[in-house]
Design a protein that fits this description.
GO terms for molecular function: rRNA binding; structural constituent of ribosome. This protein has about 180 residues and is of the alpha+beta class. It has four helices and nine strands, in the order ββαβαββαββββα. The protein is about 45% helix and about 25% strand. The radius of gyration is 29 Å and the shape is elongated.
Length: about 180
């Protein structure tokens, strides 16, 4: 059955696209939720009249998705979690936790359903996460779970120790000279 989409339908198309779907899917889901309408000659004629406004909205959505991608791409987002021995988490990191961390740290609203996850995050460390912003526009972020091991700065410690040792040597020399 051919239908005209009234909004984006993942995997099928965007607003104004005429797609072929199963009749039961169209009648029981798409029409009831006002996601699509039947592709009748009258509806197709109205669609042609609305093409300009649909194209403007589409361009705006793509521009917004590109702007969001520029903000998110390759950014590091830290998510706090309880970590057990050997870096295993108590539970796993959810899409909602990732979305909340993005909102708090980067100030960007992302729908949790847009988070593309291959495997669940159950270990501490860095994990690459993909976010589907709009159609084929995806951003990749790095999610840091737990605390990252901080490289110690031995230079600062070593620099402080010789000064203390030199001061002790000078003190010894002055006491020996005084005797």
């Amino acid at each position: 059955m051919k239908v005209i989409l009234l909004g984006e339908l993942r995997g099928k198309g965007g607003e104004g696209d005429v797609v072929d779907v199963a009749q039961g899917y169209a009648e029981n889901y798409l029409f009831r939720n006002k996601i699509a309408q039947p592709a009748t000659p009258g509806n197709l004629k109205q669609l042609e009249q609305r093409r300009d406004s649909i194209a403007k909205r589409e361009a705006e959505r793509i521009a917004n998705a590109e702007a969001t991608k520029a903000i998110l791409d390759e950014k590091l987002v830290k998510v706090d979690a309880k970590i057990g021995e050997e870096g295993q988490l108590f539970g796993s990191i959810t899409s909602q936790q990732i979305v909340d961390a993005i909102k708090a740290q980067l100030g960007v609203d992302v729908d949790r359903k847009r988070i593309v996850r291959g495997a669940t995050i159950k270990t501490a460390g860095r994990h690459a996460v993909e976010i589907n912003l709009y159609r084929e526009i995806n951003a990749k972020i790095v999610v840091l779970v737990g605390d990252e091991p901080v490289a110690e700065e031995p230079k600062a410690e070593e620099a402080a120790e010789p000064e203390v040792a030199e001061a002790a040597d000078e003190a010894t020399e002055t006491t020996e000279a005084a005797e």
